[in-house]
Amino acid sequence: MSRKRMREEETSSAVPDSQTAPNHITPQPEIAMNSVRTMAPFSDDPVAVAIREKVDYSVRISFKQAKAGNAPRPVRVFADGIYDLFHQGHSRQLLQAKNLFANVYLIVGINGDAQTHSKKGRTVMTEDERFEAVRHCRYVDEIVRDSPWELDDEFLNYHKIDFVAHDDIPYVSDDSTDVYSLLKEKGMFAATERTEGVSTSDIVARIVRDYDVYVRRNLARGYSAKELNVSFLNEKKFRLQNKMDELKDKGKRVMENIGEKRIDMIQKWEEKSRDFIDTFLLLFGREGRLSHIWNEGKGRLMQALSPPSSPARNNDDDADEACPPPPKACRLEYSAGSSRSRSSGALSDDYSDDEIPTSGI
Could you tell me where the Polar residues compositional bias lies (predicted)? Predict the structure, then answer.
């Protein structure tokens, strides 16, 4: 039989001719409970009072009888705790308590702030926050606010509790080495197991360890330094760190985008590589355009810088031999009294200057 079916049978027997309560509305005495659809009522709510009054507590249920599933009524199991920062370890403990027996009505007692702060220490959540957190757990049928630190007979009888569920580790207090020792002696204790690796203390330790991270996150979300109890210098430091992390995140996103496009880039490179190589060889190869342009330019440059060559000496000698020197002027010979000498001159084949006449002129 499912837990929902058992819950319906239990509530129908306690409150006859009732209907299911709508969501987010505290159920009335004549309305049947269905914790899967509604929050668990507090112990002083009318529906919880009506269910408790219908219980015949004179009929006591033994542990053996409850385990065998032969209980004449739903077994009323009580689980208590502080339930600060309500987490999966708490939920698992309540789940175990709900499944201790075949038909369980689970009552959860939550310690108030006053006794918790005096006996164990400061909590993160207020008592009202802790009450509301637990009452929305689907395994819970009823909530007892400000539950006592140690359970006595008066409390057990008032709430008509058959068994108390808790882990079997001795829970030490100022007056006792184990607050559940009397219940164990009476046979009213049912052990559950703790969930390893998670607890409220572990969560608080994580917050303290990563204090800077959470402060920076809340500053980025708009919380003031005063609200976070952070000094002026620390606020500036944390805000600077936030800016640096923001820049790192932007850089990381850029690299991720590049990584996504890397495959496309490789494919495009393979497609264009052959054209790139051909173009490179065409320009820079031995017979490439660049080499041809360089050779032409180098030749023109050398031609422009080299002076014109002088004519050869052998050619000049030949020219002199080919062109004889011009003849000297003819010497005229005159004889005294000779008309012929005066009227005409005779050419002489003697070109020597030594034989030029010095007289007769």
Answer: 12-26
Cα dist from 309 to 58, 299, 303, 306, 312, whole Å = 141, 17, 12, 9, 9
Q: Which of 2, 44, 46 is nearest to 21 (CA)?
A: 46
Q: ∠ CA(67), CA(70), CA(76), 5° rounding? A: 65
Q: Which long-range contacts (CB under 8 A, 24 or more apart) does 175-179 make?
A: 175/150, 176/150, 179/149, 179/150, 179/151
State the pLDDT at residue 20: 37
Between the two ends of the chain, the Cα-to-Cα distance in Å is: 176
Are 165 and 79 within 8 A, CB to CB?
yes
| d(C-alpha 6, C-alpha 20), whole Å | 15
**Residue 254, token pair as written in the block:** 């850029």
Q: Tokens at residue 132, please?
A: 């509301």
Closest to 25 (Cα-Cα) out of 12, 37, 7: 37
Cα–Cα distance measured from residue 151 to residue 147, given in angstroms and rounded to the nearest whole number:
9
Long-range contacts (CB closer than 8 Å, 24 or more residues apart) made by 9-16? 9/103, 10/74, 10/103, 10/105, 11/51, 13/54, 13/73, 14/50, 14/51, 14/54, 14/55, 15/47, 15/50, 15/51, 15/54
> Distances from the Cα of 259 to the Cαs of 254, 268, 302, in angstroms?
9, 15, 54
Q: What share of the chain is helix, strand, coil (3-state, %, to 5)?
A: 50, 10, 45
Torsion sign over Cα 49, 95, 166, 132: negative
Element (H, E) at 190: strand 189-192
Helix or strand or coil: residue 285? Answer: coil
pLDDT digits (tens, 9 = 90+) for 49-67: 999 999 999 989 999 999 9
Beta bridge partners of 110: 81, 145
pLDDT at 44: 96
pLDDT at 289: 66
The token duo for 177 is 């080495």
